[in-house]
Amino acid sequence: MSQIPDSLQYTKEHEWVANATSPLTYRVGITDYAQAALGDIVYVQLPKVGESITADKVCGEVESTKSVSEIYSPVTGKVSAINADLTSSPETINTDPYGAGWLFEVTVDSEPQNLLSASDYAAITA
Question: The CATH number of the domain where 38 resides is what?
Answer without folding.
Answer: 2.40.50.100
